[in-house]
Amino acid sequence: MRKVRMHGYDGPSALRLDEVPAPLAGPGELLVRVEVAGLTLPVLKVLNGFGRVPLPHTPGGDLVGRVEAVGQGVKGYRVGDRVGGVVFQDLYAELVPVQAALVTPVPEEIAAADALAVVRGGLVALAALRAGRLERGDSVLITAAAGGVGHLAVQLARALGASRVVAAVGSAAKAEFVRGLGADEVVRYQDAAWGEPVDLVVDSVGGQVLQRAAEALVPFGRLVVNSGAGGTLDAGVLLRGMHTVTGLAMAQLSRLRPDLVESHRAELWALLADGALRPVAERFPLERAAEAAEVLAARANLGKLLLDLSLEPAA
Question: What Cα–Cα distance (Å) separates residue 224 from each residue in 81, 131, 227, 245, 266?
Fold first, then answer.
């Protein structure tokens, strides 16, 4: 079968398409034939040598596909079922073993790219807004607003009743895109001012942007941090503003509050069906995985980046 593997630590160029034996479903696993597979920022860390994984290696991420085989001990799934979920490695391939505990059923009528948005990006976006206690009439600022999670957070904030949605992006070229999703205002990270303060900030960038996110809050405002990039907050700013800061880690939320995750997922399916959520995706065939990763590295994507295994490579 076809599988994309990294053969070095020199970024996206290390990705190559290989022919490898098909895997089997181990105990507790489903073997999934992949429809679409998502690229997320943590992939770049792996490609640049974070953790120095043994080579060749295939990073992980989110996927939607159909069950090809059911491993020992798995209940509730049959061959042919449509599922979506996450894996921690070996994602970019035609067949992928997935822990059954890390997947969820996907409705037949939902397009693969839209389903992928609900499975991961939409779930993160909604969880962040709920963790930030978004109320109808609140003003919200979303960083990384044109990305896979951010472009959904902009739409969800509007759907949940935000009175003003501010989209923070890295380039003015993304302004039209996020305005089309429902953003009232667009600011760049490098702008001297980000406009009037807001009730809630959802930050998926971290680093130096994190402090500016805190400074963008009204008194008693809330900041939800959803970035693995780190960053430092000035405690004085938090104290003077009486701000609340909440960290969001989906792995922890899934482990500690699976009921809440299922509630969020059900809400997302409903919003998708109602047209309140309109995922946007840039698709690449499996053979162009390195090119897709280059787009991600340049932060040039609008919406979700994914590998669509139904696409044929360009001639």
Answer: 35, 7, 9, 6, 22
